[in-house]
Amino acid sequence: MNRKPRGAFALLFALSLAACHKSPPQALGTLEWDRITLPSPVAEKIVRIDVREGQQVAAGAPLLQLELTRTESQLAAARAQAQQSREALAELKAGPRSEQIAQARANLAAAQASARDARAYYARLQPLGRQKLVAASDVDRARAAAGSADGQVRAAQAALDELLHGTRAEQIAQGQAAAAAAEAQAAVQSVTLEKLNVIAPRAGRIDSLPYKLGDQAPVGAALAIMLVGDAPYARVYVPEPMRANVKPGQAAQVFVDGREGAYAGHVRMVRSEPVFTPYYALSGDDAERLSYLAEIVLDKPADLPAGVPVRVEFSSSPAKAGED
Question: Which compartments is it annotated to reside in (predicted)?
């Protein structure tokens, strides 16, 4: 007759134990992969697409190609400019040609002969001018012509000296700088041309191809988006009451919606700043509305899609004295 009361007491005891047992802390979010965006280096038409969305590719695999014609022409012009700058620098280093020096010497000799003739003519007019046999204005013109001829001699001598001294060091430095700038511009165009053949920088999966064959994407637009990495990670929002007990390196269990069991992982990062609501705008019980972005990396590779809802359970915090 005492069996029923004893069974009821056992049931109530089991229910009380279940009520005292606390579920481990958990946070909700989505499953993500590290993403790589491949931007368009120039605004050119897409002429070839080698992959499709969802395809797994190896590092260095061709993804798509942009039109090359304009960039190839710009590269050819930059290389020609670089060659011109190099030749100009070589000319500066070589200095004046012997023919230029010979020409300068001949110009000096001609100026000296003209100066002697002008001085001789002025010397003949001077006594005639004193005797009033020629006009004073003729004497003045002869004196000016003699002075001008002497100036021509000095200019020709300076031109010859400049050639004999060679190219100044400052001019050579300017030529070197111009050549370096032209070569750098050619290198930039060469790199741009290489980027028109878009390749996979890492092994991964093609997540998105925003543009189709024949489209012309603007500069900086994403031509392809890849999911990379050995394992996905859960991006979750940790409620404020849990934040103090969640630390980088902490073990966690990741439950993926639609998959049985849990995936072992560890906390990679927890943001120190709360999202959406500034911490200083809340106080008291309102602080529980805060949440902190965290990332939990799976310890083993797993073929899971991005964007799937997940639930993350962290290791339980130590029980406080007096808790049931």
Answer: Cell envelope
Encode pLDDT of 100-112 as tens digits. Answer: 889 989 998 999 9
For 212-236, write each residue's pLDDT tens digit.
999 999 999 999 999 998 889 999 9
Q: Which amino acid is it at 25?
A: P
Q: Closest by alpha carbon to 294, among 234, 251, 253?
A: 234
Sheet of 197-199, strand order:
46-49, 62-66, 197-199
Kindly give the residue spans of alpha helices, DSSP state H, lying in the chain.
3-20, 69-94, 98-130, 136-165, 169-195, 240-243
Q: Which residues pair with 295 in a beta bridge?
A: 235, 269
Beta bridge partner(s), residue 292: 238
Instruction: Record the tokens describing residue 174, joined without a space.
Output: 């300017």
Q: Would you say 243 and 270 are in contact if contact means Cβ atoms under 8 Å apart?
A: yes
pTM: 0.63
- Contact status, residue 200 vs residue 57, Cβ threshold 8 Å: yes
| CATH topology for the 23-65+207-314 domain | Elongation Factor Tu (Ef-tu); domain 3 (2.40.30)
